[in-house]
Description:
- The chain is an all-alpha fold.
- It has three domains: about 30-180 and about 190-265, no CATH class; about 270-435, no CATH class; about 445-545, no CATH class.
- About 70% of the residues lie in helices and about 0% in strands.
- It has 21 helices and no strands.
- It has helices spanning about 35-60, 65-85, 90-105, 115-135, 145-165, 165-170, 185-210, 215-220, 225-250, 255-260, 270-305, 310-340, 345-380, 385-405, 415-435, 435-450, 455-460, 470-480, 490-505, 520-530, 535-540.
- The protein is flat and about 90 Å long.
- The N and C termini lie far apart (about 100 Å).
Amino acid sequence: MPETHPDPTTGSDPAAxxxxxxxxAPRHEPSILSxxxxxxxxxxxxxxxxxxxADPLLRNGxxxxxxxxxxxxxAAIVAALVRRDGRPLSREGSIxxxxxxxxxxxxxxxxxxxxxxxxxxxxxxxxxxxxxxxxAIPVPGLVAARVRxxxxxxxxxxxxxxxxxVPLLLHDxxxxxxxxxxxxxxxxxxxxxxLIAAPIFIVFALLLxxxxxxxxxxxxxxxxxxxxxxxxxxxxxxxxxxxxxWLRRALLAPPASADAxxxxxxxxxxATDVTFALGALNALFAAFVIVQIGWLxxxxxxxxRTTGLGYAEYARRGFFELxxxxxxxxxxxxxxxxxxxxxxxxxxxLYRRLAIPLVVLLGAILVSAGARMKLYVHYYGIxxxxxxxxxxxxxxxxxxxxxxxxxxxxxxxxxATGLVASAFAVLFALNVLNPDALVARSNLARDAAAPAKAxxxxxxxxxxxxxxxIPMVVSALTAPGGAGDKAAASDRCTAAATLLHRWSEEGRAxxxxxxxxxxxxxxxxxxxxxxxxxxxxxxACAKTTTEVIAVPASP
Length: 555
């Protein structure tokens, strides 16, 4: 055994000195930082970068290409952080990330208020599903999810977005263990000196600039507005905060929460409950369908005799109520199935026997709703509201068909996949079909085919639509033989004044102030109006070309 000698400087025996373990090492050593802490710090830096870039890209509304650029940057940073964590982005995660970028791009492609709302909703839903697939909370992905899992995932992501930045800063990043660099002391000294010198310099510079105009012209301080600076800080801080919360949910949420047992439902239902609830709905729906058969085949005479309403008014008052019936029946059926214990096979069989005829009766109600909408459009023309309502009806029909093939055939776990996939498919189709252009084309064709006295109402309405519709409206007003030729002078005047107010260089001066708001459809609309501005000004009422035109919605 080798002989040890005392340290000549301290007189102590080296063998007797206590050994320092890794856990007892100084906390400023870089080696003690965990992989989780390093990833958390990268997430904080990424959130700060995305917050800073969100300020110039997203501060001006309505959003356009700026949102697409920001989402592309977001996608690149998420992919880099996933690689930094040493794990690949799954195929499902790549799909949701691509969907978020696509629907963000919808705001720089189409110009429709309702479509933009649904595109933003789809973008946020894609990010919720992306976070769920990346961290398997509450389930690994959409294929394994039930509807209740989707609700839990959306709620959990919302909570993390709102408050996740706090644990990311205070705990996950382990900022208290920041390594001390050799030049840290010098940097702190320089920073302290700048903090002391800056206010003194600014005060004396302001005083001397005021004392001598010549000197003031040489020493000009930047124009600083507290309210403008505060708005930049708030916008950048907001997006940095929510991004940090989302990144924590997607990358750093505690794995234990993924294995936590599902919260039991507050109560269950039995055979008697299911019989009374679904049985009563079957009787109610059957009575309604019998009445619908009467008006579908009895014609306008039966409707007028029994209700006192005209055919068009009867159709107008019924469609949206029927859509609410279809929309509310879905959570009723899903909720009833969820409240039946898996072990209660008798109640499950009874549920299926009552749910299947209920879905069949609902199909008949949807057919009635479709007939009402067809009649409604025949009399009043199509509007964007009616088009989107029809799209929702088609989606509900798909969902109920999928319900029959999944939940009612003892395969409830696959229902959520079809529910989400069909919603995204319908919204994708709406983006491709271009709703505002479709509505404008249909209404202008009605005006062109209508008698001269009846034309013009649709012309005034389509002039208020988004940029996708405007080139067709300009053509209808200025081209010989268009729908504008049949319209009354007041209708042409109102439509032309509306176009000039919304899309001319003078009219849009205060509306689109930044390149980040650029949009394909809006750009085409502006070009079309500017190319025919002189013709439109000849048609427009002189006193209303620079005023806000109050145009009634399509009836």
